[in-house]
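re: ur question from yesterday

yeah so i grabbed the chain u mentioned. its 78 aa long if i counted rite. heres the sequnce exactly as i have it in my notes:
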Amino acid sequence: MKAYPSSISGFSDLGYLYDPDHYSWLDRHVLNSRVKREIREAMKSGSMIAAANEQVAEELHRYYRVPRENITVRRNRE
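ran it thru and got these structure tokens back, copy pasting raw so excuse formatting
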């Protein structure tokens, strides 16, 4: 039987990483701290890390060093 994660940490946009001019220093700092905390808690508890698309998944991998095998891309249905 497949084991399902106890919770899901979802990320839809990490725009503050590649477009910092549209965010104040404080906003970038707060957003970055929240994402780091959520990733750390998800990795520790075995929760699923869901990205809205491939770009967000690649950013999580590149900037936060989340292993690609721990990221699931969840596309929105249209």
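noticed a couple things. The chain has three helices and three strands. also Residues 16 and 23 are 6 Å apart (CA to CA).
anyway ttyl
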